[in-house]
Design brief:
Layout lengths: L4 E3 L14 H19 L11 H4 L7 H4 L7 H22 L1 H25 L11 H16 L3 E4 L2 E4 H19 L5 H14 L4 H21 L18
Parallel strand pairs: 1-2
Antiparallel strand pairs: 2-3
C-alpha cells in the first residue's frame, strides 16, 4: 500500500520543494507573469493573454506560452503558485524535471494551440481571451491524483484516494464550464483530457510508435498482394515472383 500523501496541509508530509527545482521556478514564473500582466494590462500587457483569433490570424505565436503564466485574480495567483510549487515538486521528484516541464507547460501550450485552431474552424467555440494559469495548475492537480491512483492522499485533512482527488480537480473545471459556459473553459477542458491521456500512458513517443507500426502494417499488407503462391506441381522452368 502506498504511503499517505498530504495535499493542502493536515499531515502526511508532502512538503514544499526547494527553490532550485523546476516546480518552484514555474511557480515564481506564474507569480511574476501575473503581476506583470496586471501592472501593464492597460497598455501592452494584455497581449500576454491568449487571444485565439490572433494566434494564427496575426501570428501572435507567443500567446500559447505566455498565457500559461497568468492568473486573473489575487487568490488565483496565490493558490496557483502553491499548487504548482507543492504538487509540481512531488511530480518532479518521481518524474524528473524534463517530464514535469513537458506535462505542466507542454500540455498548457498544446491546449492553447488547439484552442486557437478551434477558433479558426468553429466560430463561436471560444471566447475573446484566456488566462491560462489555471490550465497549468489543473493539469498538475489531476496528474498528481492520477499518479497516486488508488493510493491514499490527504485533501485538507480529508483522507481520500488519488483518483478521487483528481476527480475533485477536474470537477472544479467542469463546474466552471457549467456556470460560466463551456467556451470559457476550452483550454482547461483540453488540458484535462491531455493530462488524463498522458498519465494513462498516451505519451507522444508511444503515439509516434503506434503510427509507425500502423504504417509498417499497411506497407506489408500492400506488398503481400503482389506475392503469388508457388505450386509444387508447376513445370520446372525459371519463373520469378513479382
Amino acid at each position: 500500500m502506498r504511503p499517505m500523501r498530504s495535499f493542502g496541509g493536515g499531515g502526511g508530509g508532502m512538503g514544499l520543494p526547494g527553490l532550485e527545482t523546476t516546480a518552484s521556478k514555474l511557480a515564481v514564473a506564474l507569480v511574476a507573469g501575473s503581476v506583470m500582466f496586471h501592472l501593464t494590462k492597460s497598455q501592452s500587457g494584455g497581449l500576454l493573454l491568449l487571444f485565439p483569433d490572433l494566434v494564427f490570424g496575426k501570428l501572435y505565436l507567443w500567446q500559447p506560452l505566455t498565457y500559461a503564466f497568468i492568473e486573473s485574480s489575487p487568490i488565483g495567483i496565490i493558490f496557483g503558485a502553491i499548487i504548482t510549487w507543492s504538487i509540481g515538486g512531488y511530480l518532479e521528484s518521481i518524474w524528473g524535471s524534463r517530464r514535469l516541464l513537458m506535462v505542466a507547460l507542454g500540455i498548457a501550450v498544446s491546449a492553447g494551440l488547439i484552442t486557437s485552431l478551434l477558433a479558426m474552424l468553429v466560430p463561436g467555440a471560444t471566447v475573446q481571451a484566456y488566462a491560462g494559469g489555471n490550465v497549468m495548475t489543473s493539469v498538475l492537480w489531476v496528474s498528481y491524483g492520477l499518479s497516486i491512483g488508488r493510493g491514499q492522499t490527504n485533501f485538507w485533512g480529508l483522507p481520500l484516494s488519488g483518483n478521487a482527488l483528481a476527480g475533485i480537480g477536474a470537477g472544479f473545471v467542469v463546474l466552471s464550464a457549467v456556470t460560466s459556459g463551456w467556451q470559457t473553459q476550452v483550454p482547461d477542458l483540453l488540458g484535462l483530457c491531455m493530462a488524463f491521456a498522458y498519465v494513462r500512458g498516451a505519451s507522444p513517443r508511444k503515439l509516434w510508435l503506434h503510427l509507425q507500426h500502423w504504417r509498417l502494417q499497411r506497407q506489408l499488407k500492400g506488398r503481400s498482394k503482389h506475392l503469388q503462391v508457388v505450386r509444387q506441381d508447376r513445370p520446372d522452368r525459371d519463373q520469378y515472383l513479382n
